[in-house]
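thread from #wetlab-drylab

HS: before we spend reagent money on co-crystallization trials with zinc ion, can we at least see a predicted complex? here's what I'd submit
DV: go for it
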Amino acid sequence: MHELSIMQALVDAVEAIVQEHGAQRVVRLVVEVGEMSNVIPMYLRNAFLAFREVKPFLAQAELEIHFVPLRLQCEACGVEFQPQGYRYRCIECGATRVRVVQGEELLLRNVELEVESGNPGVQPFGSSAVREFSNSGIRG
Ligand SMILES: [Zn+2]
């Protein structure tokens, strides 16, 4: 179950963000899971629940998983398409040289923190807090 080590990497990244911003806890983390990332969302969620037990800053956190379908682009004619099954052949011209546009990613897209600093509330972080986990980075 490599989702456990992936979630470990995500939790480490979230912990760094929590410390960086002097936050007390995480309200929500949003993760994008590509169709071809080899990550099973249910396992990822189970791993998250395990970490939530032992990481106080995650005690009330919600995990939101966004599924990203595989999308390819033909290198011959440039058309973008979603492959049918596992046949990576251009639906327009039949070429087999294609590149992945999306669907391989595993991204920590967003982290919402609760910071108790006199004005309580949720401090959302958008694109500036995005951390990217490439497949190679996480699998090692
Ligand atoms: Zn084509």
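DV: Residues 3-20 form the longest helix (18 residues).
HS: ok that's useful, forwarding to the group
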